[in-house]
Amino acid sequence: MDITINKQMVQKNEKEQDFTPVFKINNLNLWYGQDHALKDIKFDIPEKQVTAIIGPSGCGKSTFIKTLNRMVEMVPIVRMSGEIVYREKNIFTPKYGVEELRTQVGMVFQKPNPFPKSIYENVAYGPRIHGIKNKKVLDEVVEKSLRGAAIWDEVKDRLHENAYGLSGGQQQRLCIARCLAIEPDVILMDEPTSALDPISTLKVEELVQELKKDYSIVIVTHNMQQAARISDRTAFFLNGEVVEYTDTSTLFSNPSDKRTEDYITGRFG
Amino acid sequence: MSRDKSNQKSIRSMIQENKSSRSQSAVMEKVVPKLFLICAIISIFTTIGIVFTLLTETFTFFNRISIVEFFTNTRWFPFAADEHADFGIIALIMGTLTVTAIAMVVAIPIGLAAAIYLSEYASAKTRKVIKPILEVLAGIPTIVYGFFALTFVTPLLDKIIPGGISIFNALSPGIVVGIMIIPMIASLSEDAMNAVPNSMREGALALGATRFEVAMKVVLPAALSGVIASFVLGISRAIGETMIVTIAGGSRPTADINVTESIQTMTAYIVQVSQGDTGYGTTIYYSIYAVGMTLFIFTLIMNLLAQFISRKFREEY
Questions:
Q1: The predicted structure's pLDDT at residue A1
Q2: B61-95 in b/e burial notation, b at 16+ Cβ within 10 A?
Q3: Does domain B82-312 have CATH number 1.10.3720.10?
Q4: Which residues of B touch A113 (CB under 8 A)?
Q5: pLDDT score recorded for residue B191
Q6: DSSP assignment string, B236-272
Q7: What is the pLDDT of residues B165-222, one digit of tens each?
Q8: Of B199, B210, B222, the CB nearest to A109
Q9: CB contact under 8 A, B206 and A102
């Protein structure tokens, strides 16, 4: 019975898929040593929408988002198969420059991780390492990025103070600004609000709504309400598999898989 | 629980019983810290004693030779007949500084590069092999380094440098002191870089930085205070180094800088006088205290500088 439901779901998905994909994931498998962490992942991520990845702890959602910019390769024992096509190119082909990929696909981490430098230097860091030295250009980029991350008004008078003097929520928006400064195409967010208080969380959520006008956003969250609030499409991960991937409204109001329903109604996880 | 009551006491009652026997240990609680305090005081008094000895003997020396002459005369010929003797410490200081400078030119780039490699590039496996080797290098007695300088490095330099090199010179012990300090700089700098949280590396990598850019523009600045402190401690070590310069540096104090010629450092002079048959109470006898005091002030300044720098350049994270 499970199988028939899955089949229906797949058909439904294929019908629904009327967006321009920015990422196409095909049969992605990933192992940490012997541990099979991602199993045959196959779905497309739309352009200029918010895609939420939900699922219980240890389901592979963080691992998955880190494969999209190949940060997962920081773990020495990782092995992968399958392909991730970003803008018509497989990111796993040997000649694909990982640094080039990461300038296109930015990332915001679970815990705010600004550099121990001034606010200005944090935002200017990305453009600087990519060879932009002109002070005027940098000034403009810094202001634009901080405005883009909705933090400009709070920090414009203290740009040259250490970033660690900011609150956690401000640090996280600074990290978003740092990410925007190199004008990425996609922004990956790995539980960006899990270390923040409710008000900071709200600000980041509002920001995500703003940002999706210009950027494609993939957000991992363990907070289902958050996924429901801010995302356009949602993928439900369980034990390294994608159980269900569809419109957020459909997934939360009318899930086609029993396991999805159990999870979103709080029966486990 | 209730089943056990009959034949076994509860933990709580055992604790209650043991409380009475605790009274003996209460005495220990009071006495032991005092013992520890005495041990701490011993080391403080030793330091005070050493400084006191240095100061009194130095004072006697400056009663005979004016302090102005000591710091302005550039000639150091203490063994000449009384009226011709010169006590100008600049000659010895120059020897020490020359050796130190050469040592740092060798130790800082190599030590820092090794630290960056170990912290940013080496796999856990490689690190496990290399770190103990570095520590073995740090454990070699300095006299062995001295022979290495005299019997291996000097002849080698003699072949390389056109025009040759004296058998005693500043270059060879300078290089070898540098080699001796490499493990210290590498190890301390690596500790400082290892302490930089990984999240910062990830932050930079996610912006498309290469590993080299991460190392140079994120990790190194964040670890700068520890790295510079390791340099200063290395300098301090080079200034105080004795055996290598005594064996391979020679005993001809000079204020001129010529690295291929014989020199004498402050430490080597103290060794020379201590070994010889200088009589107690002679000016030469007292001179080693004045030199020792100068040396002490030099290394003290360096250590204070290291502390100051590690506070000043700390990037908070």
A1: 43
A2: bbeebeeeebeebeebebeeeeeebebbbbbbbbb
A3: yes
A4: 197, 199-200, 202-203
A5: 92
A6: HHHHH--HHHHHHS-S---SS--TTS----HHHHHHH
A7: 899 999 999 999 999 999 999 999 999 999 999 999 999 999 999 999 999 999 999 9
A8: B199
A9: yes
Please list, in sequence order, all residues whose beta carbon lies within 8 angstroms of the beta carbon of residue B119, skipping any fewer than 6 positions away: B189, B190, B193, B194, B215, B219
* Mean pLDDT, chain B, integer: 89
Amino acid letter for position B76: W
Q: How many Cα atoms sit within 13 Å of A38 on the Cβ side?
A: 27
CB distance A126–B207 less than 8 Å? yes
Place of tokens 């009194």: B56
Closest by Cα among B89, B138, B167 to B237: B138
Q: How many residues does chain B have?
A: 317
Decide if B209 and A179 are in contact by the 8 Å CB cutoff: no
Strand bridging mode A35-46 / A21-32 = antiparallel
Q: Which residue of B has its CA nearest to A177?
A: B207
Nearest CA in chain B to A70: B206
Asked if the Cβ–Cβ distance from B221 to A100 is below 8 Å, we say no
Q: From the list A106, A113, A116, which residue is nearest B315 (CB)?
A: A116
The answer to whether the beta carbons of residues B262 and B251 sit under 8 Å apart is: yes
Domain ranges of chain B: 11-64, 82-312
Closest chain A CA to residue B120: A74
* Structural domains of chain A in order of their starting residue, each with its CATH number: 18-264 (3.40.50.300)
Q: Measure A116 CA to nearest chain B CA, in Å.
A: 6
